[in-house]
Amino acid sequence: MTAQPQVVPPPTTAPVLPPPPRSRRARREERRRLRRQDRLAARLAELSRLDLLLADAGSLIGQGWVQHAWFRYRDDAGEPRVATVFDLGRMSGRPVIGACLVGGLVQAGGGPAAARSQLVTHAVELTWHTLHEPASRAVRWTPSPLLHAAHVRDLTRWNDSFGRTSYDVTGLLEAATTTVRAEVARAREEQAAL
User: Fold this and answer.
1) Which range marks the domain in which residue 50 is found?
2) What is the pTM of this model?
């Protein structure tokens, strides 16, 4: 007896219908939610970079802390020299062996050419916030240019104060790292709420 092959009918598929049209309001809300997600992801990425920048600045300051100048570098003869904000060109291309608080943030953020970058600006604002504001208050990332310049002067004066030590400066950077982590926690809470 030979077995007859059974013919299996093709599966019936229901027609694929497009999703029902969403209202204009629903589409707008979805775009807003996605923009908030993008902003939070960008903020978390920058906070991660700030965490690394603060660690690098602390390491540089721990090697050679400077007062009344921004950087200490080695000249062509190998001698240590200092550079202020007014004569940074002299240290161009030479190894940096020490820095003040602001100089450490600038160097860790890419050097004097990156002093006005968003990352360095935010590092300065974060450090100033850690020094002068309560931990419960959110960091104000983008003050006016005049206020930012005042914050740079405040941090420079604080660094150069009589009796200040390198341990005070590295301690401030460690506290700023704690502030970064608090900002990360805030951002993650906000992200979870979306």
Assistant:
1) 30-61+101-193
2) 0.81
